[in-house]
Specification:
5-stranded mixed beta barrel, about 25% strand, alpha+beta, about 30% helix, Inorganic Pyrophosphatase
């Protein structure tokens, strides 16, 4: 990195907050990844990242009693696109799938209570749910909070109590259903282990870079734009 580019990077870091999706590295799927938490189990309002601005916004008030059983958010610099969808097809779910066009979702297990979201956390992927919403792949990685006294040593989904996983399966299999609607809107096609979770994360990083470009190239692009102004 040229000296003037390094100085610009340091200056930008002091002047601006990083975009939670585009400005934060995803981490290492083989170890710890970064989670940006949007909502916590006590939230009666569904918050979601406003993608253009990077601020947390209200998506909608929770209309019914279904609340997320864990911390919930996404892994930065990931994207559910063609590569993630192809993995679902390779695992024998169905054909003709596409990604849901959002960052890869993550559920974070912790013994601690949090009053609000909008924070970053280091987490270890231990498994995941392959959720299909119509013809879209919408995977949910299951992870544990680094250093958590209850869950921090878990490395594999099979180490979790079965009711904990069942609760996640039930929530994501039913949270979009209205009380008067008998049609099933989503399908949990697979509950997978840590090895598969890491593969899904790697593929979502590929989809992100294919869609938005390489994050490491952006500073050089900015320098070029400034010099050309």
């Amino acid at each position: 990195m040229a000296p003037d580019t390094r100085a610009l990077e340091q200056l930008l870091g002091k002047m601006f907050q990083a975009h939670p999706w585009h400005g934060v590295p995803p981490g290492d799927p083989e170890g710890m990844v970064t989670a940006y938490v949007e909502i916590v189990p006590s939230d009666a309002v569904k918050y979601e990242l406003d993608k253009p601005s990077g601020h947390l916004r209200i998506d909608r008030p929770q209309r019914f009693s279904s609340l997320p059983p864990t911390l919930y958010g996404f892994i930065p610099q990931t994207y559910c696109g063609a590569t993630v969808a192809r993995r679902a097809e390779e695992r024998g779910t169905r054909t003709g799938l596409k990604g849901d066009g959002d960052p890869l979702d993550v559920c974070v297990l912790t013994e601690k209570g949090f009053s609000a979201g909008n924070f970053l956390a280091r987490v270890r992927p231990v498994g995941g749910l392959r959720m299909l919403d119509a013809n879209e792949a919408d995977d949910k990685v299951i992870a544990v909070l680094e250093g958590d006294l209850a869950w921090g040593e878990v490395t594999e989904l099979s180490q979790l109590p079965r009711p904990v996983v069942d609760r996640l399966v039930h929530y994501f299999g039913s949270y979009k259903n209205l009380p008067t609607d008998s049609a099933r809107r989503v399908e949990i096609a697979e509950v997978y282990d840590a090895v598969e979770a890491r593969e899904v994360i790697r593929r979502s990083v590929v989809d992100y870079r294919d869609t938005f470009g390489k994050p490491e190239d952006r500073l050089g692009q900015l320098v070029a734009l400034v010099r050309g102004a």
